[in-house]
Inverse folding.
């Protein structure tokens, strides 16, 4: 078969047009939310003014500390694995909070989830809309 691209490009009949959302899905991620600036501001206000958030944060901290104290008695690999998982989870919470703050200062954010470790870090991804 001889290939010659001197003329116009002709796409095959099975060609499918895809938008950005479909490509994100095929690349190994999923868009969770597309938040406007107002939604980001409202979310930050709700988090900051809610006493339940402070209670949940204190409870989470206490549970994590308790878990680390129990697992640290085993030492070695078990402690490292639990500490790594808790550190990753805390990083996800921080990333989401920073994303909301950046969205409130700009025109909003797109929040996505990536499960493919070969593409980028597994977890929450924030894209700021400028």
């Amino acid at each position: 078969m001889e290939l010659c691209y001197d003329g116009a490009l002709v796409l095959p009949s099975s060609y499918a047009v895809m938008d950005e959302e479909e490509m994100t899905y095929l690349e190994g991620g999923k868009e969770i939310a597309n938040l406007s600036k107002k939604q980001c501001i409202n979310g930050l206000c709700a988090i900051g003014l809610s006493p339940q958030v402070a209670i949940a944060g204190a409870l989470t901290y206490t549970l994590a500390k308790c878990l680390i104290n129990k697992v640290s008695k085993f030492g070695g690999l078990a402690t490292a694995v639990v500490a790594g998982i808790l550190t990753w989870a805390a990083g996800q919470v921080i990333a989401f909070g920073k994303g909301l703050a950046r969205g409130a200062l700009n025109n909003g954010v797109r929040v996505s989830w990536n499960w493919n470790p070969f593409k980028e870090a597994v977890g929450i991804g924030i894209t700021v809309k400028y």
